[in-house]
Write a structure and sequence with these properties.
This protein is an alpha+beta fold and about 130 residues long. Helices cover about 35% and strands about 25% of the residues.
Length: about 130
Amino acid sequence: MTNREMKSKVMSLGNRLAAKGQDRSAAFIQAWAIVKAGGLELVVKGTSFGNRQEALRRLAGYNPADVRAFIVPEPSNLADPGAIAVMVGVQNGRGFYRLGYLPKGQAAITTVFKTVSIRVLDGDIRGARITLAA
């Protein structure tokens, strides 16, 4: 990534973070850190609930390039109106499955990201990580 591309991503992300109500200076500091790191990686919460362990086992058997993920705000969630669900599916699959949720403290910032990828934790079928890129 060239310096110009990096600065463009930082400006775009910083402005989106500031528009969400974050202090402008803090928003750009956070944007620089995220862009330099290549994105924001978070642990998906709630993967031990219901049949989600079975879903993780199945996802682990697919080529990571065939696994699709996206995030969906759930304002109608009774437990947490600010909850953001992580939906996953596989290419040519039969739909998407709610794998879990983003951590509460990170939910507000994640709505500014455009690209989402997910991976099952190496050697640990109990969890998954989601990577958000600007």
